[in-house]
Amino acid sequence: MFFQIDPQQHSNFKSQINSMFALRYRVFCERLGWVPGENQMERDSYDDQSPTYLIKQEGDGTVSACVRLLPSMGANMLRDTFPALLSGRACPASQDIMESSRFSVDTALLRSRGEAELSRTTYELFLAMIEFGLSRGLSKIITVTDLRMERLVKRANWPYERLGEPQRQIDGQKEIKAVAIAGEISVDALLAVREKAEFWEPVLFQPVVSSVFPENYKIAS
Length: 221
Hints:
quorum sensing; Acyl-homoserine-lactone synthase; transferase; EC 2.3.1.184; nine-stranded mixed sheet; S-adenosyl-L-methionine; Aminopeptidase
């Protein structure tokens, strides 16, 4: 089960968010070498833009998978960091489009449980994104990714379109072939990925309490 941390809930989930930054360090700094990181955590300026996070938390409290979501109308990686991937086109921007980034899965942990668990978690993260999009009335989620991840999206039967031609990018010390894509948000897309994953239950839990106590709550003495 994944759960959703909205911007107004960040302060209530500090330990989970820190565990997420630690996972991102292991993925983007140690394994991929794309960014330097600091203090065993990976965090960038887009985490200051009030994102929504979708995370999977293990029984011991650690985060094993996550993704960051930002409104397309504000600062985002595709328009502000990787505009070359749009091949001269304008970056999609509207109220019904959001951008995903920092898609991370703890492959070391999940491979220790078997490859099927890794595939299941990746599918669950895709499904969580689509469920999130449906709950927000989105039409698509745009993202910057590499060709390997694009193949995973295609294999999951998630309908998508390329927003430009793949381009070689230098991330940290590594050269990758990056591409911008837009995943369709619809009931049909949800059903297509569920059918491929053979997983029919909802995967996303959204906390309904924004704080432990309302501001005007008083404990009786």
